[in-house]
Amino acid sequence: MNDYQIGKLGRLTDPMYLPKGGTHYQKISWDDAFKKIAEHLNKLDSPNEAAFYTSGRTSNEASFVYQLFAKEFGTNNMPDCSNMCHETSGTALIPVIGIGKGTVKLEDFDDADVVVIIGQNPGTNAPRMMSALEKTKNNGGKIIAINPLPEAGLMGFHNPQQLNGVIGNGVKLADLYLPVKINGDMALLKALERLLLEMEAKFPGQVLDMDFISEKTMGFEAFAEQFENPSFHIDALARECGVRREDLDEAASMLAFKKKIIVCWGMGLTQQPNGVDMIREIVNILLLKGSIGIKGGGVCPVRGHSNVQGNRTMLINEKPTEAQLDRLQEYFGFQVPRAHGYDVVRAIKAIHEGKIKFMFCMGGNFLSATPDTTYTANAMRKLELLVCVSTKLNRGHLIHGKEAIILPTYGRSDKDIVNGEVQIVTAENSMGVVQYSKGMLDAVSDNLINETQIACRMAMETLKDRSVVDWQRYHDSYDAVRDDIEQCIPGFENFNVRVREKGGFYLPNRARDEQYFVPQLDGKAPFTLTELPVNSLEADEFMMATTRTHDQFNTTIYGLDDRYRGIKNERRVIFMNQKDIDSLGFKAGDKVDLYNFDDGIERVAPLFVIVSYQIPEKNTMTYFPETNVLVSVNNVVKDSNMPASKYVKIQIKKHDPAVYKKVDEMLIQGEIDS
């Protein structure tokens, strides 16, 4: 069965248990499930032999309680979905603007002169953002789209909330499309910087905000001097990025005499090996223009999952700060663990090495979301116990530890009833707004409990009298959880009252609100010196990036179509430039197998259909999770250690039916090793 078919099997209604050596899951009571979890946790030689994964669907309340249990248990092993999507953004932004989040509000799009969208497909990944971009256009703003694939939603947007949007011809949102090569973004950004510097020389004081640079930044002189390097000549940069010189000139002209500039990005940047540097290069451009901390301007990392940003605010973090740990220890009175834990990539390796024996997944589909699928699957089989909190089945339930438990829970749309009242839960969006939601549908089963209660019952059964936390209080009241969040995390003052107000509330953001950036630099923002990457391919190699379809939300597959790209009833496709198809002797519709040989290991993704598409030569695009199997666990982003799923070298060969035997051998060998 494929992921789409597995997901269509329906909602989970009861806890399920797979015993050691078993072939089928069987029902288990909630009490027995928590006893088994506690038994496994308490027999570990060290708390650090456990890992607690978090999905972005987890609410603020559940996240806070969950991380609190992990810390009282004694570990910071808290890998989360941010380790695979926007860890790069936080890693890049904190040292240069003092906060790992965006600096714009949604209403800033109404006032923006220019919005740059780089490495992101809002029509597919953030459809609600499209109406904000439409307002930008209606108010006279311009939009620059930078991506290897043209984004159909930006070329012809139909707003379903307006009659003319449903029956009309659509609105062309993007004023300029720059078809950058995969990992050519750095060269493109440096080209824009060089052109802006040249235009400032021609029009002194009209292009760059020299007052802002002088008062709010550091390192401008060294930054400007780097462009004396011959490799930063504009024609060389144009060749590196794959964008025509005249298009670069047009983009620079659109930015030159404007100040209210927003730059948005997604995983097209964060999942490249030099993603941290590229995001800092974006900040460099905005610092040149004085475009951070103003109305209509700033940085905007677009996090597509419902509460991935809120998870991190709630201290779901394998490396919490000393200040965060000090506050928890002071308030609750237990000794918090200080050593950093494992992120996703390091957790996978630790499981493989036998250093992690127990894993608890609060939502998500860890197996399908992670890189190097065969390697990860072989690691998961080595676990003593895998516990997954889920609303429905996914592939991660089929590849499990020696024992496995599935705990069912409510969907966000389900009524979450505690003490006879429908509860609210909260989340934080990409703009730093904390809002509540309330389920409206009757639950599919009377035997469901919410994620907060799951964490509390696990804590009570595992820690018993060792705990100093009143878990029953949290179990019975979301308001009680929010009261203690207010005490432990800055910005949540009067939480229970403010979150119930229309629109919720913004969390503090000094970069946005005060133009106060890095505290260690007296509130200034440093320019960053970065290097151009060296991108080389052998004659038989192509660069592959993964993406998602319109009928997909992260690893959840809702349908087999990708209407923005004209794909019907198929997911195993590879988008290629027609010249590359011709050079290999193929034609559109041919069936091929995809190979990667990083680390000297053969990885294969069998049976893909070639689709001719508008994409730079030697670049290809495929859907995840189908091609995660080709992404080496060692192919990571510098500094953030995220999987570099947008930078995978592959070979493309004619499909050979015998390839399935090879795949089976890889999986069988993994079972033997475990």
What is the secondary structure topology, with strand pairs?
Layout: H1 3-7, E1 16-18, E2 26-27, H2 30-42, E3 50-54, H3 60-73, H4 87-97, H5 108-111, E4 114-118, H6 122-125, H7 129-138, E5 142-146, H8 152-155, H9 163-167, E6 176-178, H10 185-202, H11 210-216, E7 217-218, H12 220-225, H13 234-241, H14 245-256, E8 261-265, H15 267-270, H16 275-289, E9 298-301, H17 308-313, H18 322-332, H19 344-352, E10 358-362, H20 366-369, H21 373-380, E11 385-390, E12 403-408, E13 417-418, E14 421-422, E15 425-428, E16 433-437, H22 451-463, H23 471-476, H24 478-488, H25 495-498, E17 505-506, H26 510-514, E18 525-526, E19 542-547, E20 552-553, E21 556-557, E22 573-576, H27 578-583, E23 591-596, E24 603-612, E25 619-623, E26 648-654, H28 659-673
Parallel strand pairs: 3-10, 4-5, 4-8, 5-6, 7-18, 8-9, 10-11, 11-12, 19-25, 22-24
Antiparallel strand pairs: 1-2, 1-12, 13-14, 15-16, 16-17, 19-26, 20-21, 22-25, 23-24, 23-26
Explain how this protein is built:
With 674 residues, the protein is of the alpha/beta class. Helix content is 35%, strand content 16%. The chain has 28 helices and 26 strands. The chain has a 6-stranded mixed sheet with strand order 2-1-12-11-10-3, covered by helices on one side. Strand 23 and strand 24 form a beta hairpin. Helix 3 (60-73) packs parallel to helix 22, helix 19 (344-352) packs across helix 21 and helix 21 (373-380) runs parallel beside helix 28 (659-673). The chain is globular. Residues 160-170 have low confidence and may be disordered.
